[in-house]
Automatic annotation (TrEMBL):
Domain of life: Eukaryota
Lineage of origin: Eukaryota, Fungi, Dikarya, Ascomycota, Pezizomycotina
Residue span(s) of domain CS: 244-342
PROSITE patterns xrefs: CS (PS51203), SGS (PS51048)
Region annotation Disordered: where it falls in the sequence: 198-242, 352-373, 387-417
Composition skew (Low complexity), residue ranges: 353-373
Residue ranges, compositional bias (Basic and acidic residues): 203-220
Protein name as it appears in the record: SGS domain-containing protein
Biased composition (Pro residues): 223-236
Homology family: Belongs to the SGT1 family.
Pfam families the record matches: CS, SGS
A molecular-function term among this protein's GO annotations: protein-folding chaperone binding
Amino acid sequence: MSAITLAQQGIEALDKRDYADALALLDKAINQGTNSPAWLLARAQAHYQLKDYEATLSDTALAYHSAFERANGDTRRHLITAQYRRSTAYFQLGRYADSDCCAKWSMLLAEGRPVSENDGVEKKVDEAGRYTVTYEEGLADKENQPNYGLGGHASQSPAGLGETGFKREWARAYTWRSQVLARLQALPIDDPGRFVNVTKIPPKPDTKKPAKTVEKKIERAPPASPGGPVEKPPVTPGSVPDEKLKLRSDFYQSNQDVTVSVFCKNIKKEDLVIEFGENHVRISPLPREEAPYVKPGDREATSTFILADTIDPSGSSWTATPRKVELKLKKAVPGHKWRAWAEEKIGSVDVGAATPTSTSDAQPSAAQAPVAAPALAPAPAPAPVAAQAPVYPTSSKKGPKNWEKMGEDEVADDDEAGDVNAFFKKIFKSGTPEQQRAMMKSFTESNGTALSTDWDDVGSRKVETVTDGGFVPKKFES
């Protein structure tokens, strides 16, 4: 099979997230003697997903030199991607200063700056050698953000016009830097991750394929022997460093919530127990690729995430698929921007009492006999109580106002009666899409006599007109 066919199959496997197959196919393609930068970068991505970060760095360095030597229309794109992948690998290795330098170089290349420019990024250190760029400086570093170009190549637009064609690549590196610098800022002052040990042009590897990768491949598929297949030595509890057990995650946020994706293969939703506390989230059991012995109850089956800020546990929730756990964390202080979301600790770390959000969080005390329970899953939303009407937030000195009982036994304050429409607009604007749909449906169908934010209540029925107080609705007749 030709190298091109093998490489195409490898990239297709990479797109399907079959990283082991992608690595094997790309190995064969590259070993036929073609140092294609695109193939090397694809193999680097496969190494990264398989958590072989040293091999990732080796392939990105080789891709960088190969792209530079070829000097064709795709060279700059390959150089930009190589610097970005260097950044992500250094991040996983705890070398956060090096990671930010590479992300910055990726941005500069996307801006159309000269490849060989001595920009001094790695020299921004103090007298002790600690990297001095701050999180705030990273956020403000948008002066030379490029616009979309005509065809995706820097050569098609003169440098300095802001149209290099690499806006997406620039935005990717810029966004990634916020995560890197947030982690860097949280490090102790003398942590090794604060020191720069990287150069703009990576040293060229001696071989196309790092020796470490070959060793790993041998471990995965040991040679057969006359006595039968050779078994790999068993992996025992505690033999895998915590850093290798940590999971990849991503997050985004709104004024009210932080939504987090925690990636892990072969998750069984029915077995998960997720505990929300004001300053932590604990998830168990988690299967670990690096520790195949893991089972419920093992230390390595649990991750405790120490949150960067506080949450409202009762308003937080979760869902799960076989490949990830998604957390929706309700901010304790709405509108406050989180710079990072959490630091992962392996095991059940003691962080104080947690506030359960579902029956799956409750743990029996020592005095209680264990009781068999059904498979655990996210608790359903509590059923609406007919006797209790919704209570909406208010700035009134008397506290929350029950608007459905307005006029029965109380009189609105002047500040509340002044602009009711503005108040309801504020509720609508701050509500979730589901709450907004509920408000629109209930208000329209009831002819303006009822308002609800509970979609579970009004979504499947017609909201009738409220006729209390002597009001009799009449249909319009032409």
